Q: What sequence folds into this?
């Protein structure tokens, strides 16, 4: 199985939504036996918490099941996951610092919008201090980015079924 980890700051808004969208697309393409995914935060702010209620409302509106509890990234994640995928540059930098400290070699940290060929911004904006429209914007970005991500991961790993 290809292991994919989505990472944001709090693990209650962007990354659990990314994970839920990814899993939903996997099921739709009958690919859930080929990939394993999870999400986490770089901070310890929301460990054990459900996703933000606005994240849950947004996912439900789009028919995406969402079930997650907040957790913080750790060194085992760095070793175990094939793809570490950050939502913004700050997350990317924090993950890179953890990699540097842990001495693990040859690990790359991607930005999720790296996979979007025509992204107008390299980052997924943090919706935490925004309104429900900020969550809709995050959904729209993630839905498109994850289509491209899945396409690229299938190509790289020669997964056709
Ligand atoms: P996330 O959003 O990183 O997309 O989960 C945030 C959630 C919580 C906080 C910041 C961003 N916070 O400061 O508690």
A:
């Amino acid at each position: 199985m290809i292991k994919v980890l989505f990472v944001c700051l709090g693990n209650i808004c962007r990354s659990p939504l990314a994970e839920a969208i990814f899993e939903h697309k996997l099921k739709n393409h009958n690919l859930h036996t080929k990939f394993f995914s999870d999400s986490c935060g770089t901070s310890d702010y929301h460990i054990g918490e459900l996703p933000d209620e606005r994240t849950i409302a947004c996912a439900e509106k789009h028919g995406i099941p969402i079930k997650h509890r907040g957790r913080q990234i750790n060194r085992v994640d760095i070793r175990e996951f094939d793809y570490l995928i950050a939502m913004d540059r700050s997350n990317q930098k924090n993950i890179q610092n953890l990699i540097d400290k842990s001495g693990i070699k040859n690990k790359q940290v991607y930005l999720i919008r790296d996979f979007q060929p025509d992204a107008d911004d390299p980052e997924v904006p943090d919706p935490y201090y925004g309104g429900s429209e900020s969550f809709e914007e995050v959904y729209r970005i993630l839905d498109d980015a994850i289509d491209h991500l899945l396409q690229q991961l299938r190509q790289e790993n020669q997964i056709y079924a």
Observations:
- The longest strand covers residues 2-8.
